[in-house]
């Protein structure tokens, strides 16, 4: 099994995905252990002084005015975890919790938080044991970090609360730790606070969404090309010289992908042979690279922000080891991550919208240039894909609602001490829903476009298109014919897109698509 080593210099998106989704093992580097010990020595020195230090010898948030004596500091750290583990609602997905824990571990290992090495090692042990604390949907405002989600994870480290074992059963965390020989953590000064104060949940979801959207953008370029082909459109609008004079990089990438899929097609260009020859295709076909390309450029910006956040040490207060001091700060504010999470929900909704418009065009006999109504076998007796498009339209409508920014909202908390929050966790949660919806929308377009291509008798599709059709049929999604129970076919197509099989089939002909 792949092992990810956590050091002082941050980590990579690939490492996050390996731990979250693939169950990669986690190890602490020697430099991380050294940095952890050095930062802890600063905390211990400050704890021994009579002057109050936030997070070390004071209360938290609006209660920071109270100085806490040495005899109550362990209880203080336990209490912040227990009281902040106040989430409600459905359980969050296992991959999200694993990403959250791994990213918190990454920050601890930076040497800027002041926890002991054994606390970091316990997080690694819990991840490696396949133990996943129960985290709830609601509880984070995305400022002072993802407090409630991280608190539920910290609670499990203490041997309290519930967790999911490697077998998927939810049990008391104490039982699971004992079964795997993991000693519960006894928190000391600042350690409870350091376990809670980060953007790790929203960042983990951003990283996974970027990976998923990269795959879906390539898939959407393929389905756009298949729809263009099925509609007998022209590929002349994909010429690189046309995109070079408007130099948005994503646009050129999408156009190149579509051109690669359409290479050798016997369907493109037949638009001139209609009874009423077309001068140009509709926007949903002609402007596909411009819309998908703008989304790709937004995705590139999100990747830049995620990389910066991966390099960050987010905590409050932070230890500055070179200066031997601890300082309060506002780096826990989730605004940078929240904004790009919302940006991605917007561009994903627009990609879904243009894909649905192409599907509708394929099904409309007045705009499909010779295809049967709804791609039905015997229109009137058969309804074809009429209601598949309804499902797709419902998903598009849902995505438009999900595109409303969460980060534009703020609800003051902690007796107005935390009077402006990012709502980044909410932005991340709705983006995950939007990504799932987009995959289904692209799947419906793929289902319609492949059926339409097969209905173009006497015309030969591009080799890459033929490969997509053949692979989809081999996966179990049936081709043209009389009406049948559609939901199973749509489930097959959804999995075909989600698992990357569409890209794999096409790239066997085209080579790698960007």
Automatic annotation (TrEMBL):
The record ties this protein, via InterPro entries, to:
Aromatic_Lyase, Fumarase/histidase_N, HutH, L-Aspartase-like, Phe/His_NH3-lyase_AS
Q: Which GO terms describe its molecular function?
A: histidine ammonia-lyase activity; phenylalanine ammonia-lyase activity
Q: What is its main location?
A: cytoplasm
Write down the chemical reaction(s) this protein catalyses.
Answer: L-histidine = trans-urocanate + NH4(+)
* Compartment list: Cytoplasm
Where in this chain does the entry annotate a coiled-coil region? none
Task: Say which family it is in.
Answer: Belongs to the PAL/histidase family.
Can you say what this protein is called?
A: Histidine ammonia-lyase
Name the source organism.
Answer: Streptomyces jumonjinensis
Which taxonomic lineage does the organism of this UniProt entry have?
Bacteria, Bacillati, Actinomycetota, Actinomycetes, Kitasatosporales
> What gene, per UniProt, encodes this protein?
hutH
């Amino acid at each position: 099994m792949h092992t990810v080593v956590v050091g002082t210099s941050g980590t990579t998106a690939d490492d996050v995905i390996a731990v979250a989704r693939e169950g990669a093992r986690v190890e602490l580097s020697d430099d991380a252990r050294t940095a952890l010990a050095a930062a802890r020595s600063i905390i211990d020195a400050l704890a021994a002084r009579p002057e109050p230090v936030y997070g070390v010898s004071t209360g938290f948030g609006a209660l920071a005015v109270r100085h806490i004596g040495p005899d109550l500091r362990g209880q203080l750290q336990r209490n912040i975890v227990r009281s902040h583990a106040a989430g409600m609602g459905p359980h969050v997905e296992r991959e999200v919790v694993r990403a959250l824990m791994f990213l918190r571990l990454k920050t601890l290992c930076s040497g800027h938080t002041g926890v002991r090495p054994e606390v970091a090692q316990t997080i690694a042990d819990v991840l490696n044991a396949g133990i996943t604390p129960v985290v709830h949907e609601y509880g984070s405002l995305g400022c002072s970090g993802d407090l409630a989600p991280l608190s539920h994870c910290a609670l499990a480290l203490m041997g309290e609360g519930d967790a999911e074992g490697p077998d998927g059963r939810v049990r008391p965390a104490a039982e699971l730790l004992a079964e795997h020989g993991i000693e519960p953590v006894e928190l000391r000064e600042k350690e409870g606070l350091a376990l809670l104060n980060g953007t790790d949940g929203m960042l983990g979801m951003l990283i996974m969404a970027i990976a998923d959207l990269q795959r879906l953008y390539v898939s959407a370029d393929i389905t756009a090309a298949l729809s263009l082909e099925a509609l007998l459109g022209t590929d002349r609008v994909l010429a690189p010289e046309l995109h070079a004079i408007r130099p948005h990089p994503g646009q050129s990438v999408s156009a190149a992908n579509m051109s690669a899929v359409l290479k050798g097609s016997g369907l493109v260009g037949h638009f001139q042979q209609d009874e009423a020859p077309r001068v140009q295709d509709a926007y949903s076909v002609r402007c596909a690279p411009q819309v998908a390309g703008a989304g790709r450029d937004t995705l590139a910006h999100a990747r830049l922000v995620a990389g910066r956040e991966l390099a960050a040490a987010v905590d409050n207060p932070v230890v500055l080891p070179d200066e031997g001091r601890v300082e309060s700060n506002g780096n826990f504010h989730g605004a940078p991550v929240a904004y790009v999470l919302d940006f991605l929900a917007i561009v994903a909704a627009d990609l879904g919208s243009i894909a649905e418009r192409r599907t509708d065009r394929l099904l409309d006999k007045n705009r499909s240039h010779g295809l049967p109504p709804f791609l039905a076998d015997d229109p009137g007796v058969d309804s074809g894909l009429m209601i598949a498009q309804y499902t797709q339209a419902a998903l598009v409508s849902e995505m438009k609602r999900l595109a409303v920014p969460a980060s534009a909202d703020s609800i003051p908390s902690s007796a107005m001490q935390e009077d402006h929050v990012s709502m980044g966790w909410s932005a991340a949660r709705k983006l995950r829903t939007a990504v799932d919806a987009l995959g289904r929308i692209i799947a419906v377009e793929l289902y319609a476009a492949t059926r339409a291509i097969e209905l173009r008798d006497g015309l030969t599709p591009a080799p890459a298109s033929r490969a997509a059709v053949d692979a989809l049929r081999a996966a179990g999604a049936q081709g043209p014919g009389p009406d049948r129970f559609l939901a199973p076919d749509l489930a097959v197509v959804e999995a075909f897109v989600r698992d990357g099989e569409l890209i794999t089939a096409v790239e066997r002909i085209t080579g790698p698509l960007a």
